[in-house]
Write a structure and sequence with these properties.
Distance between the termini: 16 Å
Order of helices and strands: HEEEEEEEEEHEEEEEEEEEEEEEEEEH
Number of domains: 1
Largest sheet: 7 strands, antiparallel
Structural class: mainly beta
Amino acid sequence: MKGLLTLLFSAASLIVYPQTERVQTKNEAVDFKDLFNATKRAGVACYRIPAIITAPNGDLIAAIDERVPSCGDLKLSRDINIVIRRSADGGDSWSEIETVVDYPLGKSASDPSMIVDKVTGAIFMFFNFMDLDHEKDVYYLKVIKSINNGQTWSSPVDITSQITKPEWHNDFKFITSGRGIQASSGKLLHTLVDLEKGLHLFGSDDHGESWYLIDSPIIPGDESKIIELTDGTWMINSRVNSGGFRFVHASSDEGATWLSKPDSSLIDPGCNASIIRYTSINEGADKNRILFSNAKMKDERSNMTIRISYDEGKSWTDGKTIYHGGSAYSSMTILPNGDIGLFFEKDDYQENVFVRLTLEWLTDGKDKYKIPQPE
């Protein structure tokens, strides 16, 4: 399976997008594309909670909450839908807003996240659900699936009973927005938070036909993201709501046990962030690189920054600021040509923007993407 995944990952890296914009130089200003803006959409209070992935065919899919009567979170709003926009040209142009999850008034869906199965080509979109009229404060966890690169989606499937315990029924629990991963073994992995029972992982060994809880609670951890290191270690990067920095959790036994520690170098105001594998020597790249994006401030949501680790998360560059002003949740994806896509909340959630960046620009010319050469 690992060899098959390596082949698929490498083949994907050879896909070439049509280049409709000039090459981004190290000093060039970034081009923000405002994908979701409530001031341009009648009847919508706000858009929040961005997620983005690159589909198997190279298309970009950006998903987000469409919060209708108010900007309140799931338990506070009787009408939240999940909507997407798609791009077939690397983010230069985007489809109109498409609704993929829409329940009757009084039932809301929130916090989209996605996993791409590179073996089957399926895309899984997870969300949290609440029936505010009949079961207020009871969270259900659901998933929809696309097998055609996000053009159409299945009906929702409730996986709450598969990935939680009965005694969690009334707990404040949620699948983290953003994205999960597919490990080198083919296993699908994602993070689940129960504010009373701790952070957990859930996974699938049969390409999303069924899901299961990895029952080893991790503390502390609010909204969290998982990546796989080149030696097979699972590493989770977590939001905590005090201290002004991130927490990191690592497991070398597929989640049976965890080593947890604060990372004071990753300054954070207590906000959702994004961490993603950029390149791996195991897949024929010249270097190991991990990217991390967040609002790089201790006490306010501003200063959206991307940082790079060249040593599997042991240390990080100072990073480059993408936007100095108000910025909050972020989600990253890698385009087939090696460019980096960043989708984040901007200016007190008024805008939700996409920006396409090069490694050369992020590093001021000190590093440059090279197409992986797998053996």
